[in-house]
């Protein structure tokens, strides 16, 4: 596959990523801080893509065997992208209705956030399958690496542009910015999709892909993998559980406006990308995978402690460095743990274990986001202070990271394969996950 086609595939990833910025970096803050909606309610809505993620297995199998007009992936990508962009672009209307007229707002929010969540799963599994269809085994790592780099760069750029476009903040401006961003995402998706997949007059029915239960069975049969799977869920639940809370915390604790809180995503993403590059290009030569995972988790935990301390002491100057440490630690922890996952399986099982990683990722994101939102509300209610709720969650997440690192010590790294994945492989697996 040519680089041009690879970039067009990447545009599909970019379009979906832009909807995540709108929901997880902008609307979450507005719903919790400005509209006063409970963080637990917001968490339930934001977690829908992860709740619906098991549908990816069925969607993938269905698109394998049910082409439409000679196209195996294009119709599913188009439908999924349309649903995700439409749901995200109209979500502010549901947010305002939820705060002011719950009888109308609740079903509208479920509908629009559900469209976004289902569309995300439909589009992602279809365009990753298309990437697999169009690239050879030797090209696949580079293909997904390009898609992943385009995606994380677009997250940073979208966060910066949307944050500036919302200044000064108003409801009318919010509606306009979401619609325009959705329009840009749709245009990028169309440029990437139209004419990308060759039309086939004859189709070869592919074998059904391994389902999530097969991945779980592979984990259960491997004692070391069982420990690693639990460790991953704890690690990811801690690291990713802050997705809904970081921006509203900045607004509540330090009076940050919408522009400033939206740009926190760019700061976090930039630190994560820097860590990925630094580890893959330099540190992986000198630091073992297990030690790298320990270092990454420790840095992320330090970031959480610094963020919590900034709220406890009301010192804004500690907040941004905490986010940088959290992002940097996340980048190192992600790459090293994926490398460990690759090492602990044979070549024939790599796809199955990547599926298991997807299961762990979905469980961790869902549990972490829901628990984070619920704990914030409960602790804030009991203490009478919203900031105390956030601070307590960040401290709990730091503690979970510490427990996960203790669990990591039980994993027998000497039983793993000694091959060190390249930077391209690490990024490819990250993007696939």
Quickly describe the structure.
The chain is mainly alpha-helical. It has 17 helices and no strands.
Secondary-structure blueprint of this entry?
Elements: H1 3-34, H2 39-46, H3 48-51, H4 55-65, H5 74-100, H6 102-134, H7 137-165, H8 171-193, H9 212-220, H10 223-240, H11 246-254, H12 258-281, H13 289-313, H14 319-343, H15 350-383, H16 386-408, H17 423-432
Helix pairs in contact: 1-5, 1-6, 1-7, 1-8, 1-11, 1-12, 2-15, 4-6, 5-6, 5-8, 7-12, 7-17, 9-15, 10-14, 10-15, 10-16, 11-12, 12-14, 12-17, 13-14, 13-16, 14-17, 15-16
Describe this structure in words.
The radius of gyration is 21 Å and the shape is globular. Helix 1 runs antiparallel to helix 8, helix 5 packs antiparallel against helix 6 and helix 10 packs antiparallel against helix 16 (about 385-410). The longest helix has about 35 residues, at about 350-385. The protein folds into 2 domains: about 1-200, MFS general substrate transporter like domains (Growth Hormone, Chain: A), CATH 1.20.1250.20; about 210-433, MFS general substrate transporter like domains (Growth Hormone, Chain: A). It has helices at about 5-35, 40-45, 50, 55-65, 75-100, 100-135, 135-165, 170-195, 210-220, 225-240, 245-255, 260-280, 290-315, 320-345, 350-385, 385-410, 425-430. It is mainly α and about 425 residues long. It contains 17 helices and no strands. It is about 80% helix and about 0% strand.
